């Protein structure tokens, strides 16, 4: 009863059906307003829906780096960064490949923790820096 009374006073007198529609729209709107991560780190795990996977990144144990990335982010207090494993990014010869959005930073041969450290250090800067080292092979802007 309380939500109906609240809606009636906010929107004037409305029918129960209209009240339900308003509640549905408010709930939908709130679910669309969820927090987005500030950065999204994608690490290739070589998945392919079709075709023969080359599995370069997977064979180089890219997935084993995800727990390290997550623990480093937690240690740095970077709670607004999400890490995901992805399908093949079609740059297998540069694998393991790591991408950071929304900056669109692409890094290759990410196979050691010290390389991850270097990338995360640069990501802490505001605005984040694109590393200009042998690790970065693409930066589309
Ligand atoms: S397997 Fe990683 S880019 Fe293709």
Notes on the structure:
This protein has helices at residues 2-11, 16-32, 56-59, 65-76, 113-124; strands at 39-47, 81-87, 98-101, 105-107, 136-139. With 141 residues, it is α+β, with helices and mostly antiparallel strands. The protein folds into 2 domains: 2-32, no CATH class; 39-139, Glutaredoxin (3-Layer(aba) Sandwich), CATH 3.40.30.10. It has a 5-stranded mixed beta sheet with strand order 2-1-3-4-5. Strand 3 and strand 4 (105-107) form a beta hairpin. Helix 4 (65-76) runs parallel beside helix 5. It starts with a helix and ends with a strand. The mean pLDDT is 80. The structure holds FE2/S2 (inorganic) cluster.
Features:
elongated, 5-stranded mixed β-sheet, 141 residues, Glutaredoxin, binds FE2/S2 (inorganic) cluster, 2 domains, alpha+beta
List the helices and strands and how they pair.
Elements: H1 2-11, H2 16-32, E1 39-47, H3 56-59, H4 65-76, E2 81-87, E3 98-101, E4 105-107, H5 113-124, E5 136-139
Parallel strand pairs: 1-2
Antiparallel strand pairs: 1-3, 3-4, 4-5
Helix pairs in contact: 4-5
Q: How many distinct helices?
A: 5
What's the name of the CATH homologous superfamily of the largest domain?
Answer: Glutaredoxin
CATH class of the largest domain: Alpha Beta
Structural class: alpha+beta
């Amino acid at each position: 009863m309380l939500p109906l009374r609240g809606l009636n006073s906010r929107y004037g007198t409305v029918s129960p059906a209209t009240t339900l529609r308003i509640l549905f729209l408010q709930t939908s709107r709130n679910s669309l307003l969820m927090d987005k991560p500030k950065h999204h780190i994608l690490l290739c795990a070589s998945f392919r829906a079709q075709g023969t996977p080359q599995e370069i990144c997977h064979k180089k144990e890219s997935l084993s780096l995800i727990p390290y990335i997550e623990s480093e982010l937690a240690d740095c207090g970077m709670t607004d960064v999400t890490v995901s494993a992805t399908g093949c990014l079609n740059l297998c010869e540069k694998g393991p490949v790591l991408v950071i959005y929304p900056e669109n930073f692409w890094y290759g041969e990410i196979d050691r923790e010290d390389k991850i450290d270097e990338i995360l250090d640069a990501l802490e800067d505001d605005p984040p820096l694109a590393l200009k080292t042998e690790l970065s092979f693409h930066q589309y802007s």
